[in-house]
Amino acid sequence: MVAINKLLDKTKGDRWIWLIIILLSLISILVVYSSTSTLAFKRGVGVEKLLLTKHVIFVLIGIAMIYIAHLLDYRYYAGISKVLMVITIPLLVYTLIFGANVNDASRWVKIPLIGLTFQTSDLAKLALITFLARMLTRKQENIKDVKEAFIPIMGSVCVVFVLIAWANMSTALMLFGVSILLLIIGRISIKQIMMVCAGGFVLLLFVAFLGPRREVYKSRIETYMHPERQNSDKTFQSDHSKIALASGGVFGKGPGNSIEKNFLPHPYSDFVFAMIIEEYGTIGGIIVMSLYLVLLYRCIKIVTRAPKAFGALLAAGLSFSLTIQAFANMAVAVGLGPVTGVPLPLVSMGGTSLLFTSIAFGIILSVSKDVEENNSKKVIVGEIPAMA
Questions:
Q1: DSSP letter string, 151-211
Q2: Chain mean pLDDT for the chain
Q3: Which of 299, 340, 365, 374 could be joined to 170 by an S-S link, Cβ 3.0–4.6 Å?
Q4: How far apart are CA 271 and CA 334, in angstroms?
Q5: Which residues pair with 106 in a beta bridge?
Q6: Model confidence over 1-14: pLDDT tens digits?
Q7: Under 8 Å CB-to-CB from 290, ≥6 apart: which residues?
């Protein structure tokens, strides 16, 4: 008990965000435990073994990484971002050429020695957002200058966007959207932002019509826009997701009672929100959605109170990335968007993607910790004259 109290004393940052992290982690364990029963059966192992030897361990490691990341002063991430960008761009190129091919897309790289695979786009998201926050902060004095600020900043965005979009359009588009929001907050002129959007649209068309996955993108859009014209194989995932939503009702079937987990290909990752509604009902879905909305609200408060521009931009970029990804996953599950492979942050079973998400949460808490310390210093300074 004493050790726990000491640990809590060292835990800083927004308490609401810590609570959201714990709640999402618990929801993740419950839903993944239920939705992996079919996967465990196919692999010939017990669901407890599959869950306890992978997901729970990753959840615990993720929470540990959040704790470690939040202890590090967020200013150090400015220097780390340069190293990450130097690593990320060659790694994205390597992934496109030599990466593991899954569903006609090279997104995965195997980590030597330990045998784990991870999506390089997860690292790229973290690298680009932290690097953009650093660049926008350093270029504030001449932020309107095209040569000094706009071109260096947009060069990094465009390179990362194209390299990710070549194999993973949905992630690239979300990252591009987050980048635009950061440019707006970072005081880039509206004219330049419009140029960015126009350039992004051209790059999007280039990748969509000339990229190796052009047929996949075309098929997904056609399936979403005209499901009545498609055969059942193309609408299989979205159909069973809708069945899960409809059968869940208001209060759901109860934990472990999902039927659609036996039909959906990825009920523990891409369609985990459909599993939540089937087992916990509309009430459960609203609770999960509310947690992400509260997360965004608390992060916005951190942004408005951050004493330094870098901290504000860093918290804004990472929080936008997490919440946009969350609502993109939920939109796919309820049929508001074409099927993508975007996981639900901190909830989907994801291994290394869960760890990168945890680092993002830790950095946000590091900024929040600095805000708390800055506010406490103001209070102490304000009390000195009164005491005298």
A1: HHHHHHHHHHHHHHHTT-HHHHHHHHHHHHHHHHHTT--HHHHHHHHHHHHHHHHHHHHHS
A2: 83
A3: 340
A4: 9
A5: 101
A6: 555 556 556 678 88
A7: none
C-alpha distances out from residue 250 to 24, 217, 247, 291, Å: 20, 34, 9, 18
State the burial class of residue 147 (Cβ atoms within 10 Å of its Cβ: 0-12, 13-18, 19+).
exposed
Q: Which two tokens stand for residue 288?
A: 């999960």
Q: Read off the DSSP letter of residue 111.
A: P
Structure tokens at 29: 């364990």
- The residue assigned the tokens 């690239």 is 172
Structure token pair of residue 65 = 């990484």
318 within 8 A of 360, measured Cβ to Cβ: yes
Nearest alpha carbon to residue 219 among 84, 104, 58, 60? 104
Q: How far apart are CA 51 and CA 40, in angstroms?
A: 9
Q: In angstroms, rounded to a whole number, what is the distance separating the alpha carbons of residues 95 and 109?
A: 6
The predicted structure's pLDDT at residue 358: 95
User: What is residue 108's three-state secondary structure?
Assistant: strand
Taking the C-alpha atoms of residue 147 and residue 133, their distance in angstroms, rounded to an integer, is 18
Helix spans in the chain (H): 2-10, 15-35, 37-43, 47-50, 56-71, 76-98, 120-138, 151-165, 169-185, 190-210, 214-225, 236-248, 272-305, 309-333, 352-387
Q: Tokens at residue 39, please?
A: 């996967």
Is the Cβ–Cβ distance between 357 and 66 less than 8 Å? no
As a whole number of angstroms, the distance between CA 185 and CA 173 comes to 19
d(CA 161, CA 217): 16
Distance between CA 257 and CA 264 in Å, rounded?
A: 15
Structure tokens at 146: 């095209």
**CA distances for 81 relative to 204, 291, 369, angstroms:** 26, 28, 20
Weakly modelled stretches of the chain, pLDDT under 70: 1-10, 38-52, 100-106, 112-116, 212, 228-234, 376-388
